TrEMBL record:
Residues 18-80 form the HTH iclR-type domain. The keyword Transcription applies. It comes from Kribbella amoyensis. Pfam families: HTH_IclR, IclR_C. Residues 81-264 form the IclR-ED domain. GO terms for biological process: negative regulation of DNA-templated transcription. GO terms for molecular function: DNA binding; DNA-binding transcription factor activity. This is IclR family transcriptional regulator.
């Protein structure tokens, strides 16, 4: 019955089914980290859809559980159905299956943040995120995206790509986030060469002030880099001048463990 109600509510507004779905998804897409809660009037302004259309679509999405309504504030937010679907999607990902416990243990052992991400187009996409006591973050990174050129995970992900491929992927203008961000392709190429030589990537205040990260690639059974594992935290907690070597050894070892779980064997990788 609920599904029939939703179909009628959306169908009245959009006509063709594809347009109905596009309009409903455009509303969901307006709920972001910057705007986790919205009013109908804000959705009307953001999407350009009519007031009545938005009201009916929002009502349908609430009925189905994709949005939730707070009566006290009058605001709409992401509903439990989205969280359920996200959990199902994550649990079906082989990298997430193999890395979740490894990352959780690493965060607990080092008291730092432990993260796993894969590449989605020109961005990295977080699959796992755990916090140690010294990590200094209060919000989850799972589901967030980030740049490839200014993060340790991103550099690990593209470290073995031919230069012409990653340059085409990233474009000519590399965004600057701090004065430490590398925006020169030639300098980035040198960084990626170092990643290949030593087996891990570094990030020192390139994306955010006061934070550092160290990441190592994760490979599938063919030997291709499909994800990366990192540890991160405030500069004082990471203490790279004295801890870089020990952290690198641990991160590489744990990344290799995940790779083994995905079927990778360094001596007999399937070409």
């Amino acid at each position: 019955m609920k599904g029939e109600f939703v179909a009628r509510a959306i169908g009245r507004e959009a006509g063709p089914g594809t347009q109905s779905v596009e309009r409903a998804l455009s509303l969901l897409s307006e709920f972001t980290e910057a705007h986790p809660q919205r009013r109908v009037s804000e959705l009307v302004e953001a999407t350009g859809l009519g007031q009545s259309t938005v009201s009916r679509l929002v009502g349908a999405l609430v009925a189905l559980g994709f949005l939730a309504y707070d009566q006290r504030s009058g605001l709409y937010g992401i509903g439990p159905k989205v969280i359920t679907l996200a959990g199902i999607g994550l649990n079906e990902m082989p990298v997430h299956q193999q890395s979740r416990q490894v990352a959780q243990n690493l965060a607990a052992d080092l008291n730092l943040g432990a993260n796993v991400a894969e590449r989605r187009g020109a961005e990295m996409f977080y699959l796992c995120h755990f916090e140690g006591r010294a990590a200094g973050r209060s919000s989850t990174l799972v589901g967030r995206t980030g740049p490839l050129h200014s993060t340790a995970i991103g550099k690990a992900l593209i470290s073995e790509m031919p230069r012409d491929e990653w340059q085409e992927l990233l474009g000519k203008d590399l965004a600057r986030y701090t004065p430490h961000t590398v925006t020169d392709p030639a300098a980035l190429a040198e960084m990626l060469k170092k990643v290949r030589e030593r087996g891990y990537a570094l990030e020192l205040e390139e994306l955010a002030f006061g934070r550092a990260c160290l990441a190592a690639p994760i490979r599938d059974r063919t030997g291709a880099i499909v994800a990366a594992l990192s540890v991160s935290g405030p500069l004082s907690a990471m203490d790279l001048p004295t801890r870089e070597e020990s952290l690198a050894l641990q991160v590489i070892e744990q990344a290799d463990q995940i790779s083994s779980g995905l079927g990778y064997h360094a001596s007999a990788a399937v070409g």
